[in-house]
Each structure stands twice: as C-alpha cells, then as structure tokens.
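Annotated sample (chain length 318).
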Amino acid sequence: MLLIVFILSLVFVALLMPFFIHVLKNHNISQEVSEYALDEYKKKAKTPIMGGLLFVICPLVIYLAANMPAVFDKRIQFVLLSYFLYCLVGFWDDMTIIVRHNNLGLTPRFKLILEFVFTLVLYIVYRDSISTLIHIPYFNIDVDLIFFYPLFMIMMYLAEANAVNFTDGMDGLCASVSFIALSAFGVIAFFMKEYNICILICAVLGALIGYLIFNWHPAKIFMGDSGSLALGALFAALAVILKQEIILFIIGGVFVWEMFCVCLQLTSVKLFHKRVFSYTPIHYAFTLKGYKETTVVALFCFIGLLLAAGGLAVFFLL
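Output written by the structure step:
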C-alpha cells in the first residue's frame, strides 16, 4: 500500500502538472515579484504559481480512494483537514496576489488571524482525540500542559506554517527540504505502527517528487502559499498526533532557522535600525555572497538531511 500510493501520487502529479501549468499561463496566473527582491529573482516574474494545489489535492484524493476506512479515524481527519484548511488560506493569499497584481497578498495580520481561527477550530472539534501530553526526549518524561496545550498547538501551527513559507524562495528549496523532513516523519510513523498516517505521508512524498520534476531549477512553476502553508500545517499536525512536538523542531530545523533569522532581522531593524543579516529569508543572503542558487539549495538539503538524521537519532536512542 505504501509503495502504491507513493507511485500513484507521483504519476498523477507528474502527468497533470504540464496541463496545469498550461492553464495557469493562459489565465496569467503567475508570480508577482516584489520590487525589493534581488535582481536575479526578478526575472522569475510571470512563472506560474499555485503548484502546491496539486501536491495537496492529488495525495488527498488518492489517500481517500485507497484507504477510505481510515477516514473514520478522527486522528486521520485532523491531519487531513489541517493540510487542506491551510491550503485554503494559502490559496486565498495566492489569489489576492494574482488579482491585485502585486506581491503583497493578504496582510500578515489577517493571514495569522485565519490560521489562528482554523487551528483553534481544529483543536475544539478534535480535542477528544488530541493528547495534551508533550514527550521530552533524553529525560524520557511526558509533561501534561493541560489547558495550556491549545495555545501551544496554535503557536506551533502558526510558526511551522510560516517558517515553511519563508523557506519557499528558491527553485526546489522548500519542496526538497520538506521531502527530507517528511520522510523522517514517515520513518517515525512506521516504527510507531501508525500505518494509516504512514500511508498519507507516502502519498504526499510521491506528490512532492512529481512537483519537483517541474520545480527544480529552472522552475516551471512555484508552489505558492497554497503549498507552503499546507506543508507547514501538515508537519504540525503530524507532530501533534505522533506526539513528536519536540522532535519537529529538530527534523524541521531548516524551517526553524529560516524563521529565527527573519524574526531576528525584523526585531533588529525595528529596535536598532540595523540589519543582522545582509538579507532575509536567510537563503537569499548566500546568493549575495556569490553562491549559485543550486548550490544554496544543495547546502540546505544537506543540512536538512543532518537534522532529519539527528531527529531520528533522538527518537530511536532517547
């Protein structure tokens, strides 16, 4: 089953993507580049966006078709809805960019409000299926956050979704790093005997490969917020259901790093009117130092592999 859903998702996305790209181009649904973007990235204007729709919709449809009985499991519903609802937020943001013909999209505050509301609703609806315990590796203890857990979960969702979104800035970067991190969660789910979750992960992994065929440099399509926010919510949902909230910060360390650098830069500029980094998100700073885009992506993937291995080591050994 794992291999079947992986292959089906890969094939469906790979076959549908050329047609999808053609439709997007015909309707001028393309990337709008900020005036503050680096010069070498301004040439990527008019590249179709919202490729993330396919690697969200295709694996969901395939999963429902191949493993329908699992849908009656509320824990599975929670993960599926997290993935889908955050895709809707991203879709709204992408469509706002397209309609307004600028790179602003939804205001950050409004987007965070939407994410907050969706996450709160998810918790309220599925609270009976969500444990408020957090496992602390190394010490091998469980801490019960009780009524603080909803706030913790909301903060984790918002942080992870937007961290993944910050990472989406170079051809193949976000999807490849996400593939690595998601693979690690697939291993964890398998060894925890969470086979229904493992099947879903395999479906998304196949879809990401199908997408990467067209997103690798030079990219023919970008995932847009439709894909990046959905992936971030998927990571958060998996961490909640598998009770690996702490390990998420290790496996998803590249995303954490991107988010930390952006927050540090914004804080420094606002308080001291000085930049800590030459540019954020931080992957752009490497290009300013003369590194090729493909080199930066390869470097981040290598870091992602090390962090994924570290997260698995913590899971198995601690």
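Annotation: The chain has one domain: 2-246.
Annotation: The mean pLDDT is 93.
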